[in-house]
Write a structure and sequence with these properties.
transmembrane; alpha+beta; 10 strands; Anoctamin; Anoctamin_TM; 4-stranded antiparallel sheet; 3 domains
């Protein structure tokens, strides 16, 4: 099969990936599934390339240290190879090996011409040769999480187990969610106390209560931010993400293309892209497209506000049912959802053409204007209706249409 052929020919910078490929045909979808794993020695090599932090044994000082294969005996847990790397780490390492498969001169896949040094798998995904690349569930670990986390409402969240299975980003999100929810108990109690003390008095007493509660909220929020910073730093240190490597030392993303040149930082051949070309595309294409997208959001928001005012007058004048007043709100929610999908595709296109910043700019600014629209509609008496990746113990799945596999 073409993927195994390419895997045998393509090279990492320091040798072959060493991925183990199991192929299955799925008749229900008429596609081939390539189930990829990697032996322990290959995972160790990838961990060293990615400078993965691991815990040292107590006799060597403990703490976290970037993994070095030559010093494997210094790290804790190496006696049990199946459990040395967490689920998230194995997924990350196998995906790294898969994405660093680079084309050699003259390589083609299902009619696709590949540039020398180009990442093969992301190119095949973008062209539709590969339907999708996804991790698979570890049913044992998933069942444990379902029992101790999803269905357990009275226990604290097993953040370490979440980080091990889903990764640090997902675990950090739920850590913040739990921390913030717990912290909201304080303003809830204070707010209820103010309502009891000041809510039943005259207007002057209510005004005093509102002012005092506002000052309290400012103070509480400042204290909460500092508390979260400390807790976040504690979790980041525990999970080995507190000190990130400089961007210049990180590997270029797989879809980054350009002529191969020796990097002044790493001393290795890496794809480069002229700065003047990136700036030319950014200012002549990216910026106008982003501005146009934001103008579209603003126009949709203003039109919906005017529609809401006109519809409210029609309901009052003709005596329509009150439930019909929510029609503009539903239309706004549908419009925002459709714009989100369209802008995400535009952002991905800009991201592939120039740099990663546009993906953040378009979606972030669009979300700001969308939320601003919802806030404006609340102020005028209307509200718009309106936050994981699967993981497996060791492998990554690649789905390929049968026609594409045959063509290779």
């Amino acid at each position: 099969l073409w993927l195994g052929f390419l895997a045998s020919r393509s090279r990492l910078r320091a040798g072959t990936p060493g991925l183990v490929v199991h192929v299955r045909h799925h008749s229900s979808s008429d596609s081939y599934g390539f189930y990829l794993t990697a032996p322990f020695n290959v995972l160790m090599k990838a961990a060293e390339e990615l400078h993965l932090p691991k815990t040292l044994r107590a006799e060597y000082g403990g703490g976290l240290k970037e993994f070095v294969q030559a010093e494997v005996d210094y790290f804790e847990g190496t006696d049990y190879q199946d459990h040395f790397f967490t689920t998230q780490e194995r997924q990350w390492l196998v995906l790294h090996l898969l994405q660093t498969l680079r084309a050699t001169q003259g390589d083609t896949v299902a009619g696709l011409k590949l540039i020398e040094g180009q990442a093969i798998v992301p190119k095949c995904v973008a062209a539709g040769v590969i339907s999708q690349v996804f991790p698979l569930h570890d049913q044992t670990a998933l069942h444990k999480l379902r029992k101790t986390w999803v269905r357990s409402f009275t226990r604290t969240q097993p953040l370490d187990s979440i980080s091990t299975y889903f990764g640090v980003k997902i675990a950090m999100y739920f850590a913040w969610l739990g921390h913030y929810t717990t912290a909201l108990i304080v303003p809830a109690i204070v707010g209820f106390t103010f309502w009891v003390c000041f809510g039943r008095g005259d207007q002057a007493m209510e005004d005093v209560g509102f002012v005092l509660f506002s000052f309290f909220n400012v103070l509480w929020f400042s204290v909460y931010l500092e508390a979260w910073k400390r807790y976040c730093a504690e979790l980041a240190y525990r999970w080995g993400t507190l000190d990130q490597r400089d961007e210049l030392l990180q590997e270029p993303r797989p879809l980054f293309t350009g002529p191969l040149e020796v990097s002044k930082v790493t001393g290795r051949l890496e794809p480069t892209y002229p700065l003047w070309k990136r700036n030319l595309f950014r200012y002549l294409v990216s910026v106008p497209v982003i501005v146009l997208c934001l103008v579209c959001v603003f126009i949709v928001m203003m039109l919906n506000l005017k529609l809401q005012d006109w519809w409210d007058r029609q309901i009052e004048a003709k005596g329509y049912a009150f439930c019909l007043s929510y029609l503009p709100k539903v239309l706004l929610a549908v419009g925002i959802t459709l714009l989100d999908e369209a802008y995400y595709k535009v952002a991905c296109w800009l991201n592939d053409k120039v740099s990663i910043r546009e993906l953040f700019s378009v979606t972030f600014l669009h979300c700001i204007l969308s939320s601003r629209s919802r806030k404006v509609k609340r102020a005028t008496g209307s509200t718009a209706d309106s936050a994981a990746g699967d993981r497996q113990r060791e492998g990554v799945g690649v789905a390929v249409p049968a026609g594409a596999a045959a063509a290779g």
